[in-house]
Amino acid sequence: MLEKIREGSQGIVAKTILVLVIFSFAFAGVSSYLGSSTGVPAAVVNGDEIGANELEQAFQNERSRIEQQLGEMFTALAADETYMNGIKQGVLDRLIADKLIDQAANKLGLRVSDEQIKKSIIEEPAFQTDGQFDNERYLAVLRQLGYQTTSFRNMMRVDMTRRQLLNALVGSEFVLDGEAKQLAQVQGQTRDIRYLVVDSTPFLSSASVSDEEAQNYYDANVSQYMSPEKVSLEYVELNAADMAKNSEASDEEVKTYYDENKAQYQTAEKRLAAHIFVASTDDDSADKAKAEAIEAKLTAGEGFAEVAKTDSDDQLSAQQGGKLDWFEQGVMDPAFDEALFGLQKDQISSIVKSEFGYHIIKLLDLQASQATAFENVKAKIVAQLQEKKALDVFYSLQTKLADTSYEIPDTLNETAQAVNAKVQSTQLFSRDNVPANFNNPEFIKAAFSDEVLASGLNSDVIELAPNHVVVIRMKKHQTAGIMSFADVKAGIAERLKQDKANDGARDKAAEYMAQLKAGNNTLTGASLTTLTKLGRFNQDIDQAITNKAFKIAAPAENSVTIDTAALATGYAVIVVDKVNKAEGINDNLINTLKQRIAPQYSEADYRAVVASLKADAEIEYPVAD
């Protein structure tokens, strides 16, 4: 939270792991420092409670962080209760880890004095003005964050005490040069290989699957054929856009609207400006004197364009004799704008000062404001009036929709009659194949909610889009279960055929491998592709081939090593001819790898300590009655 405090830990290793802990500490908010919560705690760690309010505050903070990170994608994820419960459990796990670290620090007798806290506050740049501690700024920042001074100091005490233990933990981890060099040698190693791919597609035509084989596969793998929970809904829908299509606007109404709102259909007056510009410097009196000298030249009769070319600091417009562009009122600097729109054509202004410097402005030309012809905007006005009438009706019906569906919650018939609509229905769908017109997170959440499924009641009004709402109720509910053999038989048959085709490709690959091992490099109906210096992270060939090439043992001198690799649709035969040592290993690469490995070591240490503390801890999860 405090950058200066974070900088107290030495080195990138400590900083990396401490960020994780600081974030988890921040998630807890200030609730635990402002008083204990009542009710059933979320967890009890060695007798110390983690309050339900503390968990909820931390969860909401984490939710906001993820929402900010993922944007609109998070809305869809938030509709999945299982996903959100997983997030909440992760937050609780972090709070428990924090509690265990705090208890361990206290057990070790780690303490932070008032003087240390005071020193950290005074040295924190966020509380300084011109490099000096500013008490008023300090209090203002705390107020903005919602802290009292006492609660803030208490929070810092816990944070800094915890950090003493973590500094000792992560600060003791280091990476040897030899470790980093060994990793660089392994990662940078390349291999010279030859390979061929045996595609399984030609074997499909000869593969056949009996009903008995399909049934046996189904019986052995029945857990793969779980049907997701599905629901079919009845619904009443209101959409202002559809209403607008059916609303009417007479010619008289359209003409009246045009006459009453002519200002909306006026093109703005535009003015073509030119200027001679004196850019602002540190010496305003000299700037003004320069502008006055230019004005004197113009008064003496010198041409505006010629003076602009020689004296204007705006080199771009100076080449055009000071000419700028066409401007509507309100676009330019206020002083420039006022002067320009106060001129007559070909008139030159007096000296005008803006925030950029001094200007002398000339009005070269103007385009007067003009009214757009009625016929040119008639269609637009019709659409506006239709939309307005539709919205008036929509808002009235939306109220009836909400009231009626709530007052008569066990049917939608009366609701449909009240809003002059009809009850419609959907086919069965799961969370993963919602009808496109209803693929909305709030709709999905309501469709699978207890209110709709368990209670059988009408839902609340759901907004699908602006001025587009719906109320739903359950028509049919199908719980998650096992799909019948008849429903999945065709898919199983196709899968087994592919497996048999793959087996054929595997057998053919084994034949080729046997020939190669026997020293026969001339293969019937196939040829090897040669690839030198294949890198471990190469993306140009199938990743399965690359992975296998680096798992095959290095060949002895004057020999090769051969193996096969399973692909998505077939098999590959791989010959490793040579293993090449890594190139380009230098001190910069080794130092980079050390910096990359160290945080991984530190994070592993941190997780190991937390796991050890958890193993020895007594953690309870009370459940409310």
From TrEMBL:
Keywords, ordered alphabetically: Cell inner membrane, Cell membrane, Chaperone, Isomerase, Membrane, Rotamase, Transmembrane, Transmembrane helix
Keyword Membrane: yes
Single Gene Ontology MF annotation: peptidyl-prolyl cis-trans isomerase activity
Membrane topology: Single-pass type II membrane protein
Membrane spanning residue stretches: 12-34
Domain spans labelled PpiC: 268-365
Subcellular location: Cell inner membrane
Domain of life: Bacteria
Entry's Gene Ontology cellular component terms: plasma membrane
Keyword presence, DNA repair: no
Main localization (coarse): membrane
PANTHER family: PEPTIDYL-PROLYL CIS-TRANS ISOMERASE D (PTHR47529), PERIPLASMIC CHAPERONE PPID (PTHR47529:SF1)
Annotated family: Belongs to the PpiD chaperone family.
Protein name: Periplasmic chaperone PpiD
Species this protein is from: Shewanella livingstonensis
